[in-house]
Amino acid sequence: MSPRRERPELRIGMVGAGTMARAHSAALSLIGPLYADLPVRIRLVAVADINGTVAADLADRYGYERVAYASASSGNRTAVELPAGL
Ligand SMILES: NC(=O)c1ccc[n+]([C@@H]2O[C@H](COP(=O)([O-])OP(=O)(O)OC[C@H]3O[C@@H](n4cnc5c(N)ncnc54)[C@H](O)[C@@H]3O)[C@@H](O)[C@H]2O)c1
């Protein structure tokens, strides 16, 4: 048996932790098991939401490593504080 090739990571940062974030997180969690030959390894790194409770819940459910804080938006812009190393 040949050694399994080390695949590069595709690091995911999710902004917003509502309905669509849940749907996309569920899909991202299934990609690995569904596609064994996928050339990247999906890694759920961080989620940010203005509602920290919702963000923490998404992180718990889907295994995001960190919760990043998103401040209230100004116009169409949102400030997201990302953890070091993201
Ligand atoms: N629900 C759908 O079927 C659907 C389909 C296609 C597109 N969309 C679009 O996707 C987006 C999200 O939809 P949803 O259904 O997940 O909404 P939702 O209300 O369930 O979730 C939105 C989340 O974003 C957070 N949020 C709001 N402002 C923020 C900001 N400035 N910074 C960080 N987080 C912020 C909210 O606290 C909330 O948790 C919307 O633009 C919607 O139009 C939704």
Chain-wise SSE layout:
Blueprint: E1 9-15, H1 19-34, E2 41-49, H2 52-62, E3 66-70, E4 80-81
Parallel strand pairs: 1-2, 2-3
Antiparallel strand pairs: 3-4
This protein binds nicotinamide-adenine-dinucleotide.
The site of nicotinamide-adenine-dinucleotide (NAD) has 15 residues, from helix 1 and strand 2.
Features:
binds nicotinamide-adenine-dinucleotide; 86 residues; globular; alpha/beta; 4 strands; 2 helices; Rossmann fold
Molecular structure report:
The protein is built from 2 helices and 4 strands; from the N terminus they run E-H-E-H-E-E. The model has no long low-confidence stretch (mean pLDDT 85). It is α/β, with parallel strands linked by helices and 86 residues long. It has a single domain (9-73), classed as NAD(P)-binding Rossmann-like Domain (Rossmann fold, 3-Layer(aba) Sandwich). A 4-stranded mixed beta sheet has the order 1-2-3-4, with helices on one face. The chain is globular, with a radius of gyration of 15 Å. The protein binds nicotinamide-adenine-dinucleotide.
Total strand segments: 4
What name goes with the CATH superfamily? NAD(P)-binding Rossmann-like Domain
Give the name of the CATH architecture.
3-Layer(aba) Sandwich
Helix-residue proportion: 25-40%
Oligomerization category of the chains in this entry:
single chain
Q: What is the mean pLDDT?
A: 85
CATH first level: Alpha Beta
Q: Which structural category fits the helices and strands?
A: alpha/beta
Strand order of the largest sheet: 1-2-3-4
Total number of distinct structural domains: 1
Mass-distribution shape:
globular
* SSE sequence, one letter per element: EHEHEE
Catalogue the unreliable spans: none
Radius of gyration: 15 Å
| Count, helices | 2
Q: First CA to last CA: what distance?
A: 35 Å
Q: Which cofactors or ions or other ligands sit in this model?
A: nicotinamide-adenine-dinucleotide
Strand content: 25-35%
